[in-house]
Design brief:
The longest helix is centred in the first third of the chain and has 21 residues. The strands form 5 sheets. Strands 1, 2, 3, 4, 5, 6, 7, 14 and 15 form a 9-stranded antiparallel sheet that branches. By secondary structure, the chain is of the alpha+beta class. The chain has a single domain, classed as Creatine Kinase, Chain A, domain 2. The protein starts with 14 loop residues before the first helix and ends with a helix. It is about 40% helix and about 15% strand. Homodimer or monomer when oxidized or reduced, respectively. One of its GO terms (molecular function) is glutamate-cysteine ligase activity. This is Glutamate--cysteine ligase. Its EC number is 6.3.2.2.
Length: about 475
């Protein structure tokens, strides 16, 4: 989740002005980049809980670390101290809540999700090889500092053992607003905030037409990504019959701002139509003079039309307000000045790389994008919406036509492979092409178990029903 800024104080005078704000994201092909974000759950390592000198003595093994003391706050500060040329601190009411990249890390950020899920928002990079290097460097930097605190990190889609009450809250003002509002609009919003982790990729577009085609293809196929990356089969220590409980949670978080908006497949879809949809997404907050004002549930459209609403009296809507507002919309593919693919569970480092590889191959090569569009347009929009409801439980075995989603995934991967081969981005050191990062997904399409199915095999086999074993086996 992005940190709000509301830096542009230009008053809004028309919807066209807001559409132009999105259109400013159009870039020439040689400027297209790949930005990968991933989240992971912190946990207290078992050896750190015993002995007077243990960093987490007295704590419970595998518990979620607190913000402070000896928790997430300390890790952020130590990471800043270890690489002072690469990071500056991000504060909320004087408390460190993240790091902003500078120098060699420019464009990247480290932030906290509501229960302390640790997120790397990667820099916009030219190739998947650059992304792999960034990911490896991040783990190498965080791992020793976390170990000194007795902590580890596990990238999973839904927390496998903790109850909601077990989870701490990070001191971010935005999350306090969402915490109060979420139970009013859905049954699982607090679960989304405190007990889910994702991996996503942010990709560019060249024009409005290019954006439309990319968004329609990626929105329709997002449920396939959910099935491929399913990695959350446990809730509070037990299987709950879902392969992606994270995806299930999103079906009743806040449907006014999430899901697969129907407008995406309307004939007049474009920047202005997306703005029109976003204006009806209920507001969370506005920023003024560094202070966040709670306006949860208010209408941005009504505010723009000059209608009186509690909490907004005397404030004029600005472009910065709308930019902040866009970060509070959570569709499966989110449009800002780039496109965010949001349908996958967090997973292993190999799967973290497979996610950007999949979408880069599909969307960054013209022939691949056209082939993906032909694949998508063969079925009505409503079929993909229905698919989104089914894949959290059935995964790749979800029926699709005369076969299953596994067949659809195989077709999707074949197109992506062609797209990456056409990009022909070869790593100078290893002399490998970008398509190598699709290997885990190719295995899945051929019948290998998903991450969720692998963990269930472990649970019913060598773990003998102890889901906590997942933490050390999935640790990065």
């Amino acid at each position: 989740m992005s940190n709000p800024g509301a830096s542009d104080t230009t008053p809004i005078h028309s919807i066209a002005q807001l559409a132009e704000l999105l259109a400013q994201g159009c870039k020439p092909r040689d400027a297209w980049r790949i930005g990968t974000e991933h989240e992971k759950f912190g946990f207290v390592r078992p050896e750190a809980t015993v002995g007077a000198d243990a960093p987490q003595a007295g704590n419970t093994a595998y518990a979620t670390p607190p913000y402070a003391p000896q928790g997430i706050e300390t890790l952020l500060r130590n990471l800043h101290k270890s690489e002072p040329d690469d990071w500056t601190s991000v504060l909320d009411d004087g408390r460190i809540i993240g790091l902003k990249g500078q120098g060699e890390a420019a464009g990247a950020a480290i932030s906290l999700e509501p229960a302390g899920q640790f997120e790397l928002s990667g820099a916009p990079l030219r190739t998947l090889h650059d992304t792999a290097e960034e990911l490896s460097n991040h783990f190498d930097a965080v791992r020793p500092l976390a170990r000194k605190l007795g902590l580890g990190f596990a990238p999973l889609g839904f927390h496998p053992t903790a109850t909601r009450a077990d989870q701490p809250w990070m001191p971010k003002t935005r999350y306090g607003i969402m915490r109060d509002y979420m139970p009013k609009v859905g049954t699982m919003g607090l679960d989304m905030m405190q007990r889910t982790c994702t991996v996503q990729v942010n990709l560019d577009f060249g024009s409005e037409q290019d954006m439309v085609r990319k968004m329609q293809v990626s929105m329709a196929l997002q449920p396939v990504a959910t099935a491929l990356f399913a990695n959350s089969p446990f809730v509070e220590g037990k299987p709950n019959n879902f392969l992606s409980n994270r995806a299930r949670v999103w079906t009743d978080t806040d449907n006014a701002r999430s899901g697969m908006p129907a407008c995406v497949f309307e004939k007049d879809f474009g920047f202005e139509r997306y703005v029109d949809w976003a204006l009806d997404v209920p507001m969370y907050f506005i920023m003024r003079e560094g202070r966040m004002h709670n306006v949860a549930g208010r209408s941005f459209r009504a505010w723009l039309n000059g209608e009186r609403q509690d909490g907004l009296e005397g404030f004029t809507p600005t472009l910065g307000d709308f930019e902040d507002h866009l970060t509070t919309a959570f569709p499966d593919v989110r449009l800002k000045q780039f496109l965010e693919m949001r349908g996958a569970d967090a997973g292993s480092p190999e799967m973290m790389m497979a996610l950007p590889a999949l979408w880069t191959g599909l969307l960054y090569d013209d022939s691949a994008l056209e082939a993906a569009w032909e694949l998508v347009r063969a079925r009505p929009w409503e079929d993909y919406v229905k698919l989104r409801e089914l894949v959290p439980m059935m995964g790749l075995d979800t029926p699709w036509g005369e076969g299953t989603v596994r067949d659809l995934a195989a077709h999707m991967l074949s197109i992506s492979m062609d797209g990456l081969q056409n990009r022909d981005m070869v790593d100078e050191q290893s002399q490998t092409s970008e398509w190598v990062y699709l290997a885990p997904l190719t295995a899945l399409a051929a019948g290998a178990p998903t991450q969720a199915e692998h963990w269930l095999e472990r649970y019913y086999g060598p773990w003998m029903g102890d889901a906590s074993r997942i933490f050390l086996e999935s640790e990065v």
